[in-house]
């Protein structure tokens, strides 16, 4: 797993595809024929694995992202920050090697690339991001800046 800071980001939600026809024979995935554009690589495998499930919660101290990435090693997952406020989580799952003598009865596990992007609120400290992975769950913690207490000053009204 690597944490990379990059610049020149485009719309952070442009890669979050929702395919209302997912699961139908003519929808996205390995069957092709998707009504939605594929990722820059042009791979239908990418679209099949694009929906990596990620939860985002805010605590008083931080924004916490949890991603289900079962079967991936930490070296196969990237956590990046672009333009100082766009968190990008990406990775790839390789297709299992097929032997000529193998007879497959069912293939349900997805393979390919995934990428999710989130625009971080202004109250975050992206330079202090921490990421860890345990039991197939990636946890990314983005600390929040402490709120500046506003000073209330009484002003005498003249006149």
The major sheet is characterized as:
4 strands, mixed
- Coarse morphology: rod-shaped
Note the quaternary state here.
single chain
| Whole-angstrom Rg | 21 Å
Structure summary, number of beta strands: 8
N-to-C series of helices and strands: EHEEEEEEE
- Could you say which structural class the secondary elements and strand pairing correspond to? mainly beta
Average pLDDT over all residues: 75
Largest sheet, order of strands side by side?
Answer: 1-4-5-6
The stretches of 5 or more residues where confidence is low (pLDDT under 50) are: 7-18, 26-49
Helicity level: under 10%
* C-alpha termini separation: 66 Å
Total helices: the number is 1
How much of the polypeptide forms β-strand, as a percent range?
25-35%
Characterize the structure shown.
The chain has 159 residues and is mainly beta. 4% of the residues lie in helices and 32% in strands. It contains one helix and eight strands. Strand 7 and strand 8 (137-143) form a beta hairpin.
Blueprint (SSEs and pairs):
Layout: E1 2-6, H1 44-49, E2 54-58, E3 62-68, E4 77-82, E5 86-93, E6 112-119, E7 130-134, E8 137-143
Parallel strand pairs: 1-4
Antiparallel strand pairs: 2-3, 3-8, 4-5, 5-6, 7-8
Q: Would you summarize the structure shown here?
A:
The chain is mainly β.
List keywords for this structure.
single chain, 159 residues, mainly beta, four-stranded mixed β-sheet, four-stranded antiparallel β-sheet
């Amino acid at each position: 797993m690597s944490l990379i800071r990059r610049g020149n980001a485009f719309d952070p939600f442009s890669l979050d595809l929702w395919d209302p026809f997912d699961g139908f024979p003519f929808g996205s995935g390995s069957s092709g024929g998707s009504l939605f554009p594929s990722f820059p690589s042009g791979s239908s495998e990418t679209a099949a694995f694009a929906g990596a499930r990620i939860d985002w919660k805010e605590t008083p101290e931080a924004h916490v992202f949890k991603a289900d990435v079962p079967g991936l090693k930490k070296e196969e997952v990237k956590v990046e920050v672009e333009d100082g406020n766009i968190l990008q989580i990406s990775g790839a799952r390789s297709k299992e090697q097929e032997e000529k003598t193998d007879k497959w009865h069912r293939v349900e596990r997805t393979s390919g690339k995934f990428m999710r992007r989130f625009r971080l609120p202004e109250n975050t400290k992206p330079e202090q991001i921490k990421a860890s992975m345990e039991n197939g769950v990636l946890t990314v913690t983005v600390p929040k800046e402490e709120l500046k207490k506003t000073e209330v000053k009484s002003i005498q009204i003249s006149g």
